[in-house]
Specification:
mainly beta, nine-stranded antiparallel β-sheet, six-stranded mixed β-sheet, 9 helices, about 25% strand
């Protein structure tokens, strides 16, 4: 479901700000704007309505808009002069949107599907793909296999043309256009660059693929629109499909033995597909794929056929293996104030590992971007680079906020715990904390491991710590490829500070005082795996000793590189709290920020994921009012969040995006009525 807010210019008379903080079963927007819900995305070309044509997928997240004619800003079609986000027509163009997963339970041989899976099963029954009683608790394995094959087609991404009716202002889908779907089947192929698979992948018939070519995309959460006109779609929770490669960690980050990461040995996790995974349950082994095939930022060349993987001509789809495997939320690109790449400097990409205790990463190309090089030459720069992880020295391990006296039990940085009224000190823009970028490589002999002092070997380098088979009671990473295959475990091994579930990160070149990176920390209520010094808790006492993070409302932090004009060169950054979520149902209460949007003026927008579960009011899209001189505010950089649009209750508000002329705001409504946040009374979603 795509929700669209259409307006333009200054706010007209009668427009009410902000949107009331309520919850119901509808999408809604501020008074005085035009509002509509997205309709059917693609019509099947078959007159019998057989599901043969491109179709919209499930649980839509990220959105990217390309106005018609955006490539006209590229001389000879090679190098962009303006960022694609701000180019082309504002009344017609192309939209990319991600499809992350399907909610509720899929069918098994002994249980019927529920929720979204039941909706899909009923559809497949109605068009004759399935012939069984889809509401029955007994399914044949053949019917389960058929269902999974179609389930794979609901995940991935959609590329579709839209236009605005000149008379009514209504946005419509152009069903005559060459709209395309990219999914988890072998109809979508990509080349993995900068990472070597454990063994070559194969197509869904078992036929070997060329080295480095991978089948499908999966778990596509948020993403990023590259300055050269491709879409990065981030593979997040891929562990649900063929199994978790980093299965050595419990839900609460207790280290488990027997999963390929044991101390005293080199890292050797199981990469074979699990037959209990959502895709792995298919009986045909040819249609299962190894775990290390997924979990990358994927650069899609939108509009090209799904099977057109990246080649030396600089065209096609690829997985950015040089950034490594994680539960990636999104990526963002460092640019100059004009949102262009900067000549004579490397390409710098930031991304976040969206899981409790996940980290933030920076990737820096080995070569420099130069004005005048072609699009294919620009893309080739991504074949080789260095990966860094952000170490937020100074955070308190109990909270994930600025460090305070661990003996001071009477202060709480969120102000959320009953009986605690004293506010803890936290970093601000006027008094920021310091962080460090650590190069994630076994060859890193320049930097010391953050936990080296606590482990009694203060001179140990990052590279030596990663290779040491006993360091921090975790096995050793013999090569950088092993490090990139399991970034979460590698960060835990060297003692990088755990974070409060980092989701979207966005580069803001228009921020007052110099470019910054905004980070949405959605929340974290789980235990940590490491202590304050980055030492792994003994699994025997983890459950009793490891602190449980108390952040239930989330926050937005801001980072500034030591040299914002050359972010690839610095190893230090400053950081501070920009906005803190709140509990309540008031006009400015909001919790659990997720997707971020930076507009052409540097304005900061965000969507929420979990506000319904926290405050029992609907998730929504907000504009965070810039108020740099408001020094008396508890959040000195920004003022209040203005709610602009909201979805149905118990539905995540995702992918906010503006058209090129900033007259329309698009956002997605994900998993409405999915019962993922405690249920939505009276919800009619999902609808058949």
């Amino acid at each position: 479901m795509v929700d669209i807010i259409a307006g333009g210019g200054s706010l007209p008379k009668g427009v009410g700000f902000p949107l009331a903080n309520t919850a119901d079963d509808n999408a809604r927007s501020i008074t005085g704007t035009v509002h509509e819900c997205g309709r059917q995305v693609a019509r099947s070309p078959d007159p019998g309505h057989q599901p043969q044509g491109p179709h919209y997928g499930a649980n839509n997240d990220y959105i990217a808009y390309f106005g018609d004619g955006w490539k006209d800003d590229w001389p000879n079609g090679n190098q962009v002069r303006r960022h694609p986000r701000f180019s082309g027509d504002g009344t017609s163009g192309w939209i990319w949107t991600n499809h992350e997963y399907m909610s509720n339970k899929q069918p098994t041989t002994t249980s019927a599907p529920t929720g979204q899976h039941l909706t899909l099963a009923k559809y497949l029954r109605n068009v004759g793909v399935l012939t069984n009683d889809v509401t029955s608790n007994t399914w044949s394995q053949a019917d389960v296999d058929t269902y999974i094959r179609w389930f794979k087609k609901q995940v991935g991404g959609t590329w579709m043309r839209v236009f605005q009716d000149k008379e009514t202002g209504e946005w419509k889908l152009d069903t005559s256009a060459d709209n395309k779907r990219y999914d988890s089947t072998d109809k979508t192929l990509s080349m993995i660059t900068g990472f070597k698979l454990s063994k070559p992948d194969h197509d869904d018939t078992g036929k070997p693929l060329p080295e480095g070519v991978a089948v499908g995309i999966a778990g596509d959460c948020s993403g990023g629109q590259s300055p050269w006109g491709t879409v990065f779609t981030a593979e997040e929770n891929v562990q649900i499909y063929y199994g978790d490669l980093e299965a050595t960690w419990t839900h609460d980050h207790k280290f488990l033995v027997g999963n390929g990461f044991d101390p005293g040995s080199v890292i050797d996790p199981d990469v074979t597909p699990s037959e209990s995974g959502r895709y792995g349950r298919i009986s045909d082994p040819r249609q299962r794929h190894n775990r290390d095939v997924y979990g990358f930022p994927v650069e899609m060349d939108p509009g090209l056929p799904g099977n057109r993987y990246y080649t030396s001509d600089g065209r096609g789809h690829r997985k950015h293996g040089s950034m490594g495997r994680a539960r990636w939320e999104n990526v963002t690109f460092a640019t100059g104030q004009s949102f262009h790449l900067v000549g004579g400097k490397p390409i710098v990409i930031y991304g976040s590992n969206d899981r409790p205790s996940g980290r933030i990463y920076k990737w820096v190309s080995k070569g420099n971007f130069e004005y005048g090089i072609t699009r294919s030459e620009t893309r080739a720069l991504l074949d080789d680079g260095d990966l860094y992880v952000a170490h937020f020295a100074g955070l308190d391990n109990r909270t994930g906020f600025s460090q305070y006296d661990p003996d001071d039990a009477d202060c709480d940085p969120t102000g959320s715990e009953a009986g605690i009224s004293k506010k803890c000190p936290t970093a601000t823009e006027d008094n920021p904390a310091l962080g460090q970028w650590i190069r994630m490589s076994v060859d890193n002999q320049e930097q010391k491991a953050p936990n080296a002092q606590a482990l009694g070997k203060p001179g140990t380098t990052v590279g030596d710590a990663l290779k040491d088979v006993n360091w921090n009671n975790i096995g050793g990473f013999p090569t950088d490829n092993h490090v990139k295959s399991a970034l979460f475990t590698a960060a835990m091994k060297i003692g990088v500070m755990e974070l409060n579930r980092p989701e979207d990160v966005e580069w803001n070149p228009k921020y007052p005082g110099g470019a910054v990176i905004h980070v949405a920390f959605t929340k974290n209520g789980r235990q940590t795996g490491l202590d304050q010094q980055g030492v792994l808790y003994d699994p025997a006492v983890h459950d009793e000793q490891a602190p449980r993070r108390s952040d239930g409302v989330g926050s937005i932090f801001t980072l500034r590189e030591e040299d914002p004009m050359n972010p690839g060169a610095g190893s230090r950054f400053k950081y501070w709290l920009t906005w803190l979520g709140t509990r309540g149902k008031g006009p400015y209460d909001a919790a659990n920020p997720d997707n971020l949007l930076i507009d052409a003026d540097g304005g900061l927008w965000f969507g929420t994921d979990g506000n319904f579960g926290r405050n029992r009011t609907a998730d929504a899209v907000y504009y965070l009012d810039l108020d740099a001189d408001h020094k008396d505010s508890p959040v000195p950089t920004y003022g209040r969040p203005f709610r602009v649009a909201a979805g149905p209750s118990d539905a995540e508000a995702t992918g906010p995006a503006l058209n090129s002329t900033r007259t329309t705001l698009f956002f997605n409504v994900q998993h409405p009525g999915g019962n993922l946040s405690g249920g939505a009374p009276g919800s009619t979603w999902p609808r058949d």
